[in-house]
Design brief:
Blueprint (H helix, E strand, L loop, with lengths): L13 H10 L13 H11 L6 E5 L4 E4 H11 L6 H14 L1 H9 L5 E7 L2 H4 L14 H16 L21 E4 L10 H4 L8 E7 L3 E4 L6 H13 L12 E6 L1 H9 L4 H11 L1 E3 H6 L15 E3 L7 E5 L7 E7 L6 E4 L6
Parallel strand pairs: 3-4, 7-10
Antiparallel strand pairs: 1-2, 3-5, 5-12, 6-11, 7-11, 8-9
Helix pairs in contact: 2-3, 3-7, 4-5, 4-7, 9-11
Length: 348
């Protein structure tokens, strides 16, 4: 491998190679797989990419991402070659939405992560976790695909804590929030089909997000009770300052919640409409909480500020384990709105 941008370093043994990656600042704090020329080439060969191909540019940073850089970071994250099409399509979604938002992902102080939702046959092909502990460590595909994205942001676009990553508190969501919809056990149309794709398509949905929040509703009997708990969590979210400003939400409906709602005849559009109408706070409440600037004026107590501007801003996905009455709620920080693309297997 010879290029003006490629340098090959040697070390006596694998552990020394890993330590060299630490010394050069190429890690996210965890050990990485050494990106040897053969491993990087295997990644590129799998998708038929020339290593010099430019995948995109972030104008505000005056930096580009090459195929070789993407492959090297995917290797370091621990990805297998068959995961690489998802990594590439995720980056394409970010570039297509607004390449400068790639800089904003870390430049903002509220510590955004990136959600990577996968639909279609590729989930089973790569063994992606869609059920038990799907947001936890333990599954190679879930963990390394999201990690590859973070390493690209750090190593290519210099989004490192204290430099261009200006997150005030930080977030574990920056490591990886990658999972698949549990289509096989869902009572509803798969998420990607609801967005116009065919069932046999494999897709990735990408969005900038805040930390996921666990919602427990163990004793509600009616479907409205489950949805009220989701609406209450939305209305209580710490980023209430952004309500009504193009904000979207992801409701990952747990297995038992989905089963209960489906048994009572609730479909996705009706659920979206119900929650959108119930998830609000008064303008006066938001001012008291410091989410809106200014003092309370007449009319503020009666003015409703909705967490979602429209029902379509609430994305509903069925996933999670068959072990409890839980759901997960994730706020889509407005930097990168939900963008869904078909996953390309070949990039030649």
């Amino acid at each position: 491998m010879t290029s003006l941008r490629t340098h090959v370093h040697s070390a006596p043994d694998p552990l020394d190679t890993i330590e060299e990656c630490y010394r050069r600042g190429w890690t996210d704090g965890l050990p990485v797989v050494p990106p040897t020329p053969d491993r990087v080439s295997a990644m590129l060969d799998y998708v038929g990419l020339d290593r010099r191909r430019v995948l995109g540019e972030v104008p505000v940073r005056r930096r580009t991402l090459t195929a070789e850089q993407a492959a090297a970071n995917a290797v370091m994250a621990g990805c297998l070659p068959e995961y690489f099409p998802i990594v590439l399509t995720t980056m394409q979604a970010l570039f297509d939405h607004d390449p400068n938002c790639i800089h904003e992902l870390s430049a903002v102080t509220n510590s955004t992560g990136v959600l990577i939702l996968i639909n279609g046959p590729i989930r089973q092909n790569i063994g992606l976790n869609c059920t038990d502990n799907l947001l936890s460590p333990g599954n190679r595909a879930n963990s390394t695909i999201g990690r590859a994205l973070r390493l690209i942001l750090m190593n290519v676009f210099e989004q490192r804590p204290g430099i261009l990553d200006r997150g005030c508190m930080g977030s574990t969501a920056k490591y990886s929030v990658c999972f698949g919809e549990d289509e096989e056990n869902s009572p509803w149309t798969p998420f990607h089909v609801s967005r116009g794709f065919d069932p046999e398509d494999s897709t990735v949905t990408v969005a900038s997000i805040q930390d996921p929040e666990l919602i427990g509703n163990r004793y509600g009997i009616e479907g409205e009770s489950v949805m009220d708990s989701i609406a209450d969590a939305m209305a209580s979210h710490g980023m209430a300052t952004y309500f009504g400003r193009g904000i979207q939400w992801f409701w990952i409906v747990g297995h038992w919640h989905a089963e209960s709602l489906a048994r009572q005849g609730w479909e996705r559009p009706a659920m979206q409409k119900y929650i959108q109408q119930e998830a609000w706070r008064s303008r006066a409440q938001l001012k008291r909480l410091g989410a809106i600037r200014g003092g309370i004026v007449p009319g503020d107590d009666a003015m409703r500020v909705f967490a979602a501007a429209s029902p379509e801003d609430i994305h509903i996905i069925k996933a999670g384990g068959n072990s409890g009455m839980y759901s997960e709620l994730i706020m889509n920080y407005y930097g990168v709105l939900a963008t869904t693309l078909k996953i390309q297997e070949s990039w030649s």
